């Protein structure tokens, strides 16, 4: 009986997963340069995260794909949403991991542009200040703080990206000071006050908030991670109602979640190296356990976020219109 029940549950899960995939957006199924051209806009950004595997797993092929797509789309900059370095972060700005995880992997000429990073939980296992200080070493590593914002204005289209530092906002990291020594040293009240002020002044056409950890997601990671972020971030988001997308990494798969009565699209961006399985959860619009990265494209009237797998195919598109 237990075996039959298990098979039933697995079958139900498979049906649910297929249903989500079938109902997901299939716009711009890009896999050739001609198709990638369709993803162009006034503003184009990339988002990549959970990268640092010394080129192993699928890190190098995804990095090469990013370069090939960039030849066509010409991104303004790359959002690096944490965990550029597995597993213990870096110890200094001269740590060899800067070469094996980053510089020698993302070496395509079209990727020699600004990378705007945030800290992930794995960076917090090492020297977080060294991650910030690498800004003074590498021309393309642009990290003015643990949290910061950047506004792009192209052809009259404006887009604001708000970069936040989620690890210290989560209580379990603050409590594990032996493993994450810098997490408990951060001033959460100051960051949340800054976020509140930043969103209160955000009048751009589009606003994207980027953190490493998800607010909503299917994951086996501790519930407290999402609960802590929901408690602290959602009241600020709802206060101003201008966050179009909250995008994160951490879970190593693609997810798009829409919660009832919530105007924000919640996105988990796929890992740029090692992926994990995923299944639908509350609010799931789409999910896929594949490696890849995302292309964000904006015009005055439309914001698209294309989830690309390692073959360069847009497996799902999030579209917001005005």
Protein described:
The protein has eight helices and 13 strands. It is of the alpha/beta class and 322 residues long. The protein has a seven-stranded mixed sheet with strand order 4-5-6-7-9-8-10. Strands 3-2-1-11-12-13 form a six-stranded mixed sheet, covered by helices on one side. Helix 7 runs parallel beside helix 8. The chain is globular.
Give a brief rundown of this model.
The protein has 322 residues and is an alpha/beta fold. Helix content is 28%, strand content 22%.
What is the fold's blueprint, element by element?
Blueprint: H1 2-23, H2 33-36, E1 43-48, H3 59-73, E2 78-80, H4 97-103, E3 115-117, H5 128-133, E4 148-154, E5 157-163, H6 171-175, H7 188-200, E6 206-210, H8 223-240, E7 245-248, E8 254-257, E9 265-268, E10 284-288, E11 292-298, E12 302-309, E13 314-321
Parallel strand pairs: 1-2, 2-3, 5-6, 6-7, 7-9
Antiparallel strand pairs: 1-11, 4-5, 8-9, 8-10, 11-12, 12-13
Helix pairs in contact: 7-8
Mean pLDDT across residues: 92
Structural class: alpha/beta
The helix fraction, in percent, is 25-40%
Measured distance between first and last alpha carbons: 53 Å
Strand content: 15-25%
Return Rg in Å: 19 Å
Strand tally is 13
How would you describe the shape? globular
How does the major sheet shape up? 7 strands, mixed
Q: Provide a count of the helices.
A: 8
Order of helices and strands: HHEHEHEHEEHHEHEEEEEEE
Catalogue the unreliable spans.
Answer: 1-28
């Amino acid at each position: 009986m237990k075996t039959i029940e298990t098979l039933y549950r697995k079958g139900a899960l498979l049906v649910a997963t297929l249903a989500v995939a079938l109902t997901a957006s299939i716009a711009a199924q890009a896999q050739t340069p001609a198709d990638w051209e369709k993803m162009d806009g006034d503003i184009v950004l990339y988002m990549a995260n959970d990268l640092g595997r010394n080129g192993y797993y699928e890190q190098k092929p995804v990095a090469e794909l990013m370069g090939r797509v960039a030849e066509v789309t010409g991104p303004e900059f790359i959002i690096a949403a944490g965990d550029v370095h597995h597993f213990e972060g870096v110890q200094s700005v001269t740590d060899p991991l800067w070469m094996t995880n980053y510089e020698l992997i993302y070496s395509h000429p079209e990727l020699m542009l600004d990378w705007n990073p945030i800290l992930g939980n794995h960076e917090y296992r090492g020297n977080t200040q060294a991650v910030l200080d690498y800004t003074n070493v590498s021309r393309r590593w642009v990290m003015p703080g643990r949290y910061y914002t950047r506004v792009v204005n192209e052809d009259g289209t404006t887009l604001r990206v708000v970069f936040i530092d989620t690890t210290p906002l989560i209580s379990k990291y603050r409590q594990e000071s032996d493993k994450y020594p810098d997490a408990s040293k951060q001033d959460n009240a100051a960051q949340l006050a800054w976020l509140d002020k930043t969103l209160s002044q955000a009048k751009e056409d589009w606003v994207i908030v980027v953190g490493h950890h998800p607010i909503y997601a299917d994951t086996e990671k501790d519930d407290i991670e999402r609960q802590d972020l929901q408690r602290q971030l959602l009241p600020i988001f709802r206060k101003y109602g201008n966050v179009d997308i909250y995008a994160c990494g951490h879970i190593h798969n693609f997810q798009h979640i829409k919660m009832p009565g919530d105007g924000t699209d919640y996105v988990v961006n796929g890992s740029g190296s090692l992926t994990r399985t995923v299944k639908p959860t509350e609010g799931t619009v789409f999910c896929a356990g594949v490696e890849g990265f995302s292309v964000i494209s904006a015009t005055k009237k439309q914001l698209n976020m294309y989830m690309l797998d390692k073959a360069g195919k847009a497996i799902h598109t999030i579209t917001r219109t005005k």
